[in-house]
Amino acid sequence: MKAQRLEKLEQQRQSLERDFHHALVEALRECANGRWGLFERNKGLLPAHLERRSLPDWVTKVNDLGEQVTTVRISLGYEELPALVRLDALRRVPNAGNAIGEQRQAQTWLKEIENEPSLSLSPEGRGDLTSQKD
Hints:
This protein is mainly alpha-helical. It is about 60% helix and about 5% strand. It has helices spanning about 5-30, 50-55, 55-75, 80-90, 100-115, and strands spanning about 120, 130. It has a two-stranded antiparallel sheet. β1 and β2 form a beta hairpin. The longest helix is centred in the first third of the chain and has 30 residues, at about 5-30. It starts with a helix and ends with a strand.
């Protein structure tokens, strides 16, 4: 790939990851406040065409940005974004009667994010959001 194209893709990746991070935090707040959908605990209860229509906008935004981030990272040869890996893993947890609910999962993840107020993108763009000290 040409250097200009790589630089443009890298800038796009950084922008998309920032947007994804902000959308994820917004979605986690919604979920922590009792709204369902982010962790897909009720997935499969409705027919697929109705399920898509019933998704809240904030979940759709996270999903769309996640797909875009993954596409750009793959084209650059980077690993999958760790926040996306975690979200996918939490979505795959079986919906058992004693499973932690979406609200509590969102609260826990938000606390982790809030405990790291200086999160920023890793300089080489290959890792997760990493803490940088000034």
